[in-house]
Amino acid sequence: MKQNTFRPRDLLNKEVAGIYGVARLTDKARAAHAGEIGSYKYGADSEQDTAILAFLGISAETFQEAAVRIDHDVKLGAWILDNCERSSEEVSKFNRKMKVWWQSKMPRDEYSTRRRKLAQEKENRRLFWSYRDSWFWHKFFRP
Q1: For the purposes of burial, counting CB atoms within 10 Å of the CB of 78, is it exposed (0-12), middle (13-18) or buried (19 or more)?
Q2: In the predicted model, is pLDDT for residue 107 greater than 80?
Q3: pLDDT tens, 5-18?
Q4: Does one domain contain both 21 and 86?
Q5: What is the mean pLDDT of residues 100-119?
Q6: Does residue 10 contact residue 28 with C-beta atoms inside 8 Å?
Q7: Domain with 142 in it
């Protein structure tokens, strides 16, 4: 028996259309269409999806059809922005609202742990590039 390994992107991912939750909604729509959504919920069954789709003014069926038909996130994002008729100010306000909602749903200790982990990953990348650059300059341009 095949084990379901589907996991949608994070709610605070803005890769599709620059709107929180749309990337996750896209993953869930595609998985639901393929019958591989597992225990996740899509459309009217999900509080998150309902809020995002209401903001976009797009039905779950229309969104799913577009997500399946347009397999590139940038092109799908352009389609969404063309069809939702929301200003950048409205998108920013919605993003702030979604972030606060997400933080209120996540247990405080888990949220803090995740923030520390992301900050450490960022610091590790910075240190790696700093070390790599200093190695390069010392290796080839010795004083």
Answers
A1: middle
A2: no
A3: 888 988 888 889 99
A4: yes
A5: 76
A6: no
A7: 107-143
Which H or E run contains 37? Answer: none
Other CB atoms within 10 Å distance of the CB of residue 45: 11
Task: Find the angle CA(47)-CA(76)-CA(15) to the nearest 5 degrees.
Answer: 70
Specify the number of domains making up the chain. Answer: 2
Gap between the Cα atoms of 71 and 105, Å rounded: 30
CA pair distance 51, 94, nearest whole angstrom: 10
Between CA 79 and CA 71 the distance in angstroms is 12
User: Per-residue pLDDT tens for 18-46?
Assistant: 999 999 999 999 999 998 998 899 988 88
Question: pLDDT at residue 53 above 90?
Answer: yes
What are the residues whose beta carbons fall under 8 Å from the beta carbon of 6, sequence distance 6 or more? 27, 31, 36, 37, 38, 40
Q: What is the pLDDT of residue 12?
A: 85
Whether residues 88 and 23 share a domain: the answer is yes
